[in-house]
Write a structure and sequence with these properties.
There is one protein chain. By secondary structure, this protein is of the alpha/beta class. Helices cover 38% and strands 12% of the residues. It contains 14 helices and 13 strands. Strands 1-9-8-5 form a 4-stranded mixed β-sheet. The chain is globular, with a radius of gyration of 21 Å. It starts with a helix and ends in a 5-residue tail after the last helix. Bound molecules: pyridoxal-5'-phosphate (PLP). Pyridoxal-5'-phosphate (PLP) binds next to α4 and α5.
Length: 385
């Protein structure tokens, strides 16, 4: 091993970052004597989200997957229904609805933002379509005006899977608050985390009480807690989608520092963009794109290589230098489950091309500029095109 090898940097793809008051908040939760959910810290987090997003109602959940399941239950999705989801997304975007019996109908993505291609939307709508689920990839908004207009025309609810886009904006409005319901993720890989966690944003008052019932195992316990009913009982469908106070206490510490986290992530994004623009132009490599009317949540930074072979070669080239860059979603429409469910939708050639060529770079809240420059230089060293 040469001296150079022994000084290999080791830069992971993702790492949790503490804001400082997480453990103090958890100690407070323990000393308050409540570890189950819907107490002080759960409500503080919900208040924070409602205030900072101007959201009518935020319900903390055990994950974004669970928030999506709650949305499917609240919409009374059932066997025979169809739900339009992008093929280029995480499994849960489709699975939460498939679990209620719905057939996923996959829509392709735009090559610029990698968000669902709104020009393909209307052609996929049938009598059976019961929901449209846009995903704001990387924290950059879908073309929501066009999507909402089509949804309005056919009276189909829009559920935003906003796992990437907390604090991102579309024409000045907060992502997650534009659809009838919106979901958030606080998984360890997301901008703001409590390990496992999420939230359901309820933007339509028609779903306020039902969403609480769904989260509380099908009971009106939330109303009971507020003194609105004198007993609580089984009143509807539901499960246990409540995070514990320990998770909420951790999460509040992160939310309280949301501005600093988002500012840092914008800097990380811009450092990559500045450092890699010339190289990307020279070799015809795609970089993330933020349309004029969007403010990104800066969830990730990626390179779009011309094909899978080049992507894998660059991934290996970086790995040799101790840098972990990773690919992302495999097309859902090609999955085993999609075949089993006899899923619908058109061909998704952009999804397939993007899935094969996309490489995500290390991106976490405390990555240093020096580390980023190590990544940038290692990429610039790759010229095998
Ligand atoms: C992470 C993610 C989810 C799932 O989030 P969990 O909180 O882990 O359940 C859903 N959709 C998208 C687009 C995601 O990136």
């Amino acid at each position: 091993m040469s001296i150079k090898d022994s000084h290999k940097p080791s830069i992971p793809f993702c790492k949790i970052s503490l804001q400082g008051s997480e453990l103090d908040h958890i100690a407070k939760a323990v000393s308050e004597g409540h570890l189950s959910g819907n107490h002080f810290f759960t409500r503080q987090c919900e208040q924070f989200l409602q205030n900072s997003l101007a959201a009518p109602k935020a319900l903390l959940t055990s994950s974004c997957t669970h928030a999506l399941e709650m949305a499917a239950i609240a919409l009374e999705i059932q066997a025979g229904d169809e739900v339009i989801v992008p093929s280029f997304s995480f499994v849960s975007t489709a699975n939460a609805f498939a679990m209620r019996g719905a057939r996923p109908v996959f829509i392709d993505i735009r090559p610029d933002t990698l968000n669902l291609d709104e020009t393909k939307l209307e052609g996929l709508i049938t009598e059976k379509t019961k929901a449209i689920v846009p995903v704001h990839y990387g924290g950059v908004a879908c073309a929501m005006d066009e999507i909402l207009k089509i949804a309005q025309k056919y009276q189909i609810p829009v559920i935003e899977d906003n796992a990437h886009g907390l604090f991102g904006k579309y024409k000045g409005k907060n992502l997650g608050t534009l659809g009838r319901l919106g979901t958030l993720s606080f998984h360890e890989t997301k901008n703001i985390t409590c390990g496992e966690g999420g939230a359901l944003l309820v933007n339509d008052p028609e779903y306020f009480s039902l969403s609480e019932i769904v989260r509380e195992k099908g009971t009106d316990r939330s109303q009971f807690f507020r003194g609105e009913v004198d007993k609580y009982s089984w009143v509807g469908p539901g499960s246990n989608y409540m995070p514990s106070e320990l998770q909420s206490a951790f999460l509040l510490a992160q939310l309280e520092n949301a501005d600093a986290i988002q500012n840092k992530r914008r800097q990380i994004y811009e450092t990559y963009l500045t450092g890699l623009s010339a190289w990307a132009r020279d070799y015809g490599i795609g970089l993330p794109f933020i349309p004029e009317d969007c403010e990104s949540a800066y969830h990730l930074f990626y390179l779009l290589l011309p094909n899978e072979k080049k992507r894998d070669e660059l991934m290996e080239h970086l790995k040799q230098r101790g840098i972990l860059a990773v690919f992302h979603y495999l097309p859902l429409h090609r999955s085993k489950m999609a075949k089993q469910l006899d899923s619908g939708g058109g061909p998704c050639p952009v999804t397939e091309r993007v899935s094969a060529g996309l490489l995500r770079l290390p991106f976490y809240n405390h990555i240093s500029e020096d580390e980023q420059h190590v990544v940038i230089e290692a990429i610039q060293d790759f010229r095998r095109f």
